[in-house]
Amino acid sequence: MSEASADEARASTDPYLWLEEIEGERALAWVAEQNARTREAFFDADFEASAEEMRAALDSDDKIPFATKRGDHYYNFWRDAEHPKGLWRRTTWDSYRSAAPEWDVLLDVDALAAADGTEWVFHGAQLRRPDYDRALISLSPDGGDAVTVREFDLGAREFVPAPRGFDVPAAKTSASWVDADAILVATDFGPGTMTTSSYPASVRLLRRGQALDAAAEIMSVPADHLTAFGAVDHTPGFERAVLGDVIDFHNQRLRFAPLPEDDRAAALAAADWTTIDIPTDISVDIDRELILFRPRTDWEGTGFTVPAGALAVARLAEFAAGTAAPRIVFAPDAATSLQGWTITRNFLVLSLLRDVQCVNRVLDLRADFTARELPAPTQNQTVSLGAVDPDDEETADDYWLIETGFLEPTALKRGSLASEDAPETVKSLPALFDADGLEVGQHFATSADGTRVPYFQISEAGLPLDGGNPVRLDGYGGFEISRLPGYAPVTGIGWLSRRTSGAPDGRGPSGPAPGRRGVFVVANIRGGGEYGPQWHAAALRENRQRAYEDFAAVAGDLVQRGVTTPQALSCSGGSNGGLLVGNMLTQFPELFGAISCGVPLLDMDRYVHLSAGTSWIAEYGDPREPAQWDFIRTFSPYHLFDDRRRADYPPVLFWTATSDDRVGPVQARKMAAKMQDAGIPDVWFYEDTEGGHSAAADNRQAARTHALSARFLWKELTGE
Fold first, then answer.
1. Residue of 125, 542, 554, 617 with fewest CB within 10 Å of its CB?
2. Mean pLDDT of all residues in 396-418
């Protein structure tokens, strides 16, 4: 049997294909029935109170208005109770650093939504240099990834109407200013211009007043690649365009071309592109005269080797000409990994992790990369740095510093790398939940193959280790994403601030004890990036099971240490984390008392046919190829489900959003329907219409999504 026919044969036996019709009448009727059932069970007074408290925290006027400097102004996007869809606004530095900044509102998204009759969700703005007088604003009609891109006049406080202004219809679009009258845009230009992953395959030069289908193509990529993108770097003295062929999540090819000061659109259309000739699995950053490389696997060049996870630097012109080899400025070790970097005018700052503890190393570009480390943050806190504005002489080496922790409200500081002075605290978030008596600890579990797996535990100090504590274990384990400490009021309100009353419900002696606060645990399993690309690669494709064994090991360690019991232990995850907890449900059901599974992948046979699914083949494999389906089926919850084990499965909530155009709602729908039809008790489903992959179009929806997950888990573990 051919690959295609084997794939089709499996699909033909699936009785729930009708739920893949996202807007199908029958499917939406099923969703409405499920939503009503879930609301009746969990939208009680406890849920409403928790959701309202979460929303108040998210809407708090005391939140930090994080800002981005462009020219003389600091720009911020802000949501609160009065403006649920948000305000795009700006202020000056003197005003920003004051206790009550005076904001100049540029765009009221609530007013725009009311005027247009569209539930717009703001997805960012790109300002035009050098005057910062126009912006390309991205707006999603439903919170999904597809956006319209419209030109906005900051002086007039209005959109520039087409055809005089740029107005790109809704798609998964990226756009970049070329000059005052042209943009570089990757979008849906019509048939044959999108990849099978649902992203643009074509980058074109669109001039002012020109119809979209008349834009000149600059590059295109094969349909089976992930996407194409184009960007223009307007750094004074280093103006250039960059084109990218993103082959998959872990591989890409880049090329660049300098842009002259005059008639940049014409120069771009006729550019002589230089391809960066390196292995495709190397992450590349171009900044001023430098090019930086971070390989995923060892890079064996002519006369040099750059280890996987290292950072190497060269001068762009010399490297492109083949006259210089890259120089290693960071090499990882067994405990230390590179998470990212930021560059000011004269310094390169490396964000490192040592056993998932933050370290920030500063390299002086003027002094042969001489290194120093910034003062170490408090244990179990995250400190991240970002450049303020390297192009402004007055702020060339200034940096933002953000400190945060599970229990420490976020603080925003500002300093200069050219000075030894400590950074100044600019804004601080007040406490938004009761953390008195709580502490954070780091522990290590041992996975099935002997690998040490770190995890953070947030719990009461002096926690009784008698198994009587209600625990929520959270994880992700994919795409080299690291899970680090961060202040999350919704978690504090929905879990850490709660205390069991001990109300009897027949669960027996293994449930939570009376008077216990919720314990929250974050697992740093393989598939993530906590120990660099090797930690991620260890759980790719045929090795995916290692991520699930790691998570199960953390669950087992919590029980072995006496923190909890399986009956009092829950787990939660979203997206790839939804796939993770879906495998806990089907492979390790005996470890958990309840599971919350959000916006998940679950049907790993059909995932390549749904939404943006083919973009993740590099992560999971391609089920259309029989040899790969043999290992993919071992972590496909939809196929691992066994109705003969109906008594083994813990209560589970699947939640998603109709407008999720990344993973889509259908996998959660199908899994819930399959389990319910098999007679499995306590299988719940909820689907919001808006919000996209985050299921959070505004703070109200975000609060209610988090409150539902927390209410479900708490009720199932405690009976309260």
1. 542
2. 98
